[in-house]
Specification:
- 2 copies of one chain form a homodimer.
- Chain A is α/β, with parallel strands linked by helices and 318 residues long.
- The first copy, chain A, folds into 2 domains: 2-127, Rossmann fold, CATH 3.40.50.720; 146-315, 3-Layer(aba) Sandwich (Rossmann fold), CATH 3.40.50.
- Chain A contains 11 helices and 14 strands.
- The first copy, chain A, has helices spanning 2-5, 27-35, 60-65, 87-95, 114-121, 159-172, 184-190, 204-211, 235-245, 272-283, 307-315; strands at 7-8, 13-18, 40-45, 70-73, 99-102, 125-127, 146-152, 177-180, 192-193, 220-223, 249-255, 260-261, 264-268, 291-298.
- Chain A has a 5-stranded parallel beta sheet with strand order 3-2-4-5-6, with helices on both faces.
- In chain A, strand 5 (99-102), helix 5 and strand 6 form a beta-alpha-beta unit.
- Chain A is globular.
- The first copy, chain A, starts with a helix and ends with a helix.
- Chains A and B meet through helix 8, helix 9, strand 13 and helix 10 of A and helix 8, helix 9, strand 13 and helix 10 of B.
């Protein structure tokens, strides 16, 4: 059932970097190229593009001839939205049979002409922000296999990055592990997943259950966390994901030196110990065996010479 | 802003009881007639209807002549959905200019002919399960005025009933108080509100903020709770509502004698003390002054002769 219900993307990808001038606006495309180069056949850059994902430059015709199955919109300019200057390339790709995949607020079908191009090429328009229909309410039923969920003291502290890095290292050590994506970039990297924060709240835990179905007893699902239990706007998403994931293990992600919530400067971040304790207390409702197995620190704000001391001071806390 | 963004219904209502044969399928209509008789002008019953909300029987023509502004679908038969035998009455009401208001999974606009009838009468089709667009992400900003939220050990334990009863009693005592509706029946009773469990999870706390805006310092919003922090399927809704409501007070609702969660028989209900403590711990994130001011017990499952003893045993716990 879960295979049917998750969003499914077809590789190989042609990564569309459009005409953006700064890496900041191409985070999605760069992330996809970095984490799953084996799914990427090339990059398509328009005139003025100053970003390089390290993939072979390729036009639509060549990519299609080499078997590309999806064009991934890897850019998000200020104000969102699909620019007029991009439409010709998107239409060409759709007519050539490449699915067009985007994670923007703007729906792809609302771009004039694109739906017709997709129909003529037999391609799909896939908005990875749009959850599939018919998600169930969470049942709380215990599933087979093991699960690790990355959680955080705040949004945007490295929960996706940590989940991807943990998955890669588990696989390198020969442990059966699958990255489970809950956000748009994650879904593009994994090729499947569910945009958990776009699900109607009654079905958030149910969506998390669908995302990591029954599996082998020695298999780990490593689930990309969302939001923070402490964030005044996003905690609902986090709790639904925590309950539905039924993790055996959490890894708490934190940005060293960040003092208050993103977008809510009047809310101080929780202490790491408080953060761990709250997740364990709430998460044990659906998995009494839940443990915290680690902390991922993003130390970019800490001067290089102080990072080791910073880490040591935190690890001595318990 | 909040006035614009909440669902707004126009009274007086004509309550449509259709042809249902059992009170169980008319809970919505009976609840509306019970809690806001002053908003109800009459009831419309088709042949075969065996339910009586205690309102004057009235046909559409008479109701329209007396100023009715909305027809409220007060029934929910097994399998949901609007029956063919009802459509003529609904079309007549819409052509007469009455808004058609329903809380079914089926959208009103999907009933053949109804949209045209509404257009010709200048009436609206209002699905109270559909949240308004453009809800914000919760900001956590402290609002003026005071708030009470009903919470529960489970779903369907009396959170709406308790909020309505508390509001009525506060008003009787001369305290400024407003019932704030978060579910379909509550919205029909209040004439406004937001269907909180139908909101996309990223905006659940934000919707709760919109629902109870800044108010007089001595005014109480009494907010209808949803779900339960302990329910494996619905806790996300509850946490978003708790964070966004920023309650000063909670009242915990419980059905005496119920042992496991509705629909999740493998999950025992929390202890009342655990339930209170968890709500306080989580709710104090957005309002550090949060207190539990009472417990509402639904004792229908307890034999009449044992209720007093049951209540006494619980109130002695702390």
């Amino acid at each position: 059932m879960s295979d049917v219900i998750q969003i499914q993307l077809h590789a190989p990808y042609l990564i569309f970097l459009a005409d953006v001038a700064d890496h900041v606006y191409a985070k999605t495309g760069l992330g996809v190229a970095h984490w799953c180069p084996e799914r990427c056949i090339g990059q398509l850059r328009l005139r003025g593009c100053a970003v390089d994902a390290g993939l072979p430059d390729m036009d639509v015709k060549t990519a299609a001839a080499r078997g590309a199955r999806s064009l991934i919109l890897g850019v998000a300019p200020v104000g969102g939205g699909i620019q007029r200057t991009w439409v010709a390339a998107l239409e060409e790709a759709a007519r050539a049979g490449l699915d067009i995949v985007a994670g923007m607020h703007h729906r792809l079908a609302s771009v004039p002409g694109l739906a017709e191009a997709a129909a003529s090429g037999g391609a799909r328009l896939v908005d990875v922000r749009v959850p599939p229909p018919n998600l169930p309410v969470g049942s709380g039923r215990k599933r087979t296999g093991m699960r690790l969920l990355t959680v955080g003291t705040d949004c945007a502290v490295g929960k996706k990055y940590s989940a991807l890095a943990i998955t890669r290292e588990l696989q390198r050590r020969g442990v059966k592990a699958t990255f489970r994506a809950t956000g748009q970039t994650g879904i593009m990297i994994a090729g499947e997943g569910l945009p958990i924060d776009a699900v109607v709240c009654d079905f958030t835990a149910g969506a998390a259950e669908v995302l990591s179905p029954d599996n082998d007893a020695d298999h780990w699902d490593v689930i990309e966390g969302q939001g923070s239990l402490f964030h005044p706007g996003y905690a609902a998403v986090t709790l639904g994901l925590l309950h539905g994931s039924q993790p055996d293990a959490i890894v708490v992600c934190h940005e060293a030196g960040r003092g208050t919530h993103a977008g809510c400067a009047h809310y101080p971040l929780p202490d790491l110990v408080e953060c761990i304790d709250t997740h364990l207390a709430m998460g044990r409702r659906t998995n009494p065996e839940l443990r915290c197995v680690g902390v991922c620190l993003n130390t970019r704000l800490v001067p290089a010479g102080e990072r080791r001391a910073w880490r040591r001071s935190r690890s001595a806390r318990r």
